[in-house]
């Protein structure tokens, strides 16, 4: 089964701002290119992965490669083929840790963290429909400052000022067909002594 190209992303840069714990602005860990949440709907398996991308301004950032795979059996062997796939990226910025929810009509919503030189870590989503995207990334939870936690601090064992981030994204469909999404961002407070991240949860009409 062949798919579009995707690969190991770099840590994500974030917008500079007031720091309380760290003395240096951290990068956000984009982990690697392993699959995140996978959902099954209408005969397709949907998922997305972090991937390295080059955006329109020529900068190397973190983007998302997404896939809808149709599984099939041949005798005792499980196979499949890619029904739909594509990339999502924001020029000069990063998208991290996707999760996809799909209703019974095949309408899909993908949530993720949006972060970069112009954005504090924020909760966002995009609508997917088969092999196309809506083309618009919607911010639903504005980050109010940079991530500033102990996991990116050398004083607490953090390496290279890269902060742990984001593989808490999730998406699910309720009985009414609404898609609920959750992803990590920086809320207005309160923070703990060692971290300031939170989880934004929202209902999206696909």
In terms of topology, how is this protein built?
Layout (H helix, E strand, L loop, with lengths): L26 E2 L9 E4 L2 E11 L5 E15 L2 E12 L5 E9 L4 E10 L2 E11 L2 E2 L4 E4 L20 E2 L6 E4 L5 E7 L12 E7 L2
Parallel strand pairs: 1-11
Antiparallel strand pairs: 2-3, 3-4, 4-5, 6-7, 7-8, 8-9, 8-10, 12-13, 13-14
Please outline the major beta sheet. 5 strands, antiparallel
What percent of the residues sit in helical stretches (DSSP H or I)?
under 10%
Class computed from helices, strands and strand pairing: mainly beta
* β-strand amount: over 45%
Report the count of strand segments. Answer: 14
In total, the number of domains comes to 1
* Tally of helical runs: 0
Distance between the termini: 29 Å
Quote the average pLDDT: 92
Tell me the Rg in angstroms. Answer: 17 Å
N-to-C order of helices and strands: EEEEEEEEEEEEEE
As residue ranges, the low-confidence spans are none
Shape designation: globular
Which terms summarize this structure?
globular, mainly beta, 206 residues, four-stranded antiparallel beta sheet
Description:
The protein has one domain (27-204). The protein is built from no helices and 14 strands. The protein has strands at 27-28, 38-41, 44-54, 60-74, 77-88, 94-102, 107-116, 119-129, 132-133, 138-141, 162-163, 170-173, 179-185, 198-204. Strands 6, 7, 8, 9 and 10 form a five-stranded antiparallel sheet that branches. The relative contact order is 0.20. The model has no long low-confidence stretch (mean pLDDT 92).
